[in-house]
Amino acid sequence: MGEREPLTVQELLHVRSLGLHAEVLPHPEIEVSGAHTSEIHDPGRWFDPGNIMLTTGLRLQGEQDLEAAAAGLAAALRRARVSALCFGLGIYFEAVPVELIEACQRADVNLLTVARDVPFSHVEKYVNALGPVAEDYGMKRAMWLTNDLLDSIASDQPIASLIQRVAANCRGAAMLYEDTGKLVESSGDGPVHLVLQAITNHGVHYEKISIGRWQVMYRTIVMRGRGYHLAIASRNEQVLGEVGDILLDTTQKMLGAIKGLQHLDASRRRHENSQLVTSLQDGIEVSRELRYWELLQPFGFEAYQPVRSVAAVVLHEGSLGPRRVETLLSSAQRAGVPLLFAENGRSNDIRAGFNALIPDTKQAVGWLAEQRENLAIGLGEASGSLSRIPELLRGAELAAKVALRDTEHEPGTEGLLLRADDLDPATWMLARVDSPLDRQRLVRFIAPLREEPELEETLIAYLALDQDISRAAAALFVHQNTVRYRIKKAAELLGGSMAEVRLVASLYLSYERQITETRNRQRTDKYK
After folding, report:
1. Average pLDDT over residues 166-179
2. CA 37, CA 315: separation in Å to the nearest integer?
3. Domains of the chain with bracketed CATH
4. In this model, does residue 265 exceed pLDDT 70?
5. Tell me, what's the pLDDT at 461?
6. Span 1-13, pLDDT tens digits
7. Taking CA 398 as the corner, what is the angle to CA 395 and CA 399, rounded to the nearest 5 degrees?
8. Could you tell me which residues are beta bridge partners of residue 208?
């Protein structure tokens, strides 16, 4: 066989089926040795001399300094002696950016456009079939794709960037779903809902399916204990045949790496978060407040703005669990609520729950109220002084203690949030009663009534119903005079009179829990 005549850029322009048009053509006579698609940054080092590079312009999309980016691309292609840059229209740009045209003119680089209805694979196949393509092209293509996708890790939104690059490389669309059906990320104009429906109905871990004109390849993967569906779609079956496997393989590995990095970063931030909470709870000097406000700023707190301590306990001897912790942290992030969080209750003598710090804003308090399911939450008073955190935390813990008492004895309670500001003095003082000696003193005070259950029941109803004789009689189904007699008799057993404020106060402290329960029961019966 005789040697084939070299293929030139000018000859490619004459092939109508390739849909090529010259925008900048200083060197039409340059020989073409191969054609490859690339969306990576600094692509010149991956091309052999004489190659043409096909791109959708993904690297230029969203660039703040488009002129500098275009100049850098043109210069890199000139250094690599790339024969032409072929720009695909209709994906990210309807026309070639003026900045790129001017950059190619200055760099003396051929710039062609590819018609929107011509797949890049068509150009690649034509050129690579006629030109002297190296045998290691498949390996190089894998490297190009991998390096292109690797660039997504440096993005502020790595998963979104990765899916966007995958869509560009398959000349179509890419989607990532949770196994629940929730869409995590997507890019391109593919049939997002139809793809999910097909994956759900098909039930195969790895398959290639057709949806109208779209060809779809997908894979079901598991990352950190959660299931996901990764799908790529293209109207060109040949594209998926050539790059589908490597795209799915590489993207799966990249997602695993990104998830691992995110988990590592989240663990680090959680540890720093917990350490900060612990330090503040242990107490800091006023002179060190500025330093701690600086440490809080990366978590979204504004210096010297009021904050509230949070103490939460899991109801019914339950556990918080890693999934609940993750849900709390992620929901706060989604809601834009700054949060310092420290889990506790890992030892047998401390109940499961958490301590936290939030800003004193309606948004933050509203978010916390939404998280109360199966939790007794106490919210401390507001203060802009971090040196007061230990004091504020004690108030939050007292409020949580009251919330726990008011909810735990009622099965099915969804949880309760109480503010320390809203606790009346009697409730506050009783919540601080911890020693057996203090409690025994209250029990001894009402001991004479323990042997008179009718008197005790009447007295509790009388106090719970705001010392209203008629309401107490109605609640007990007795005559009003019976109530008067019983409460007088009860007071005499205790050596006093119900007209004495001191006796009434002592009775309230002794029967506070029963009084609260009776009030709640009366309110419930009222609305039945």
Report:
1. 86
2. 58
3. 9-134 (3.40.1390.20), 144-261 (3.30.450.190), 286-430 (3.30.70.260), 435-526 (1.10.10.2840)
4. no
5. 92
6. 344 457 899 989 9
7. 90
8. 217
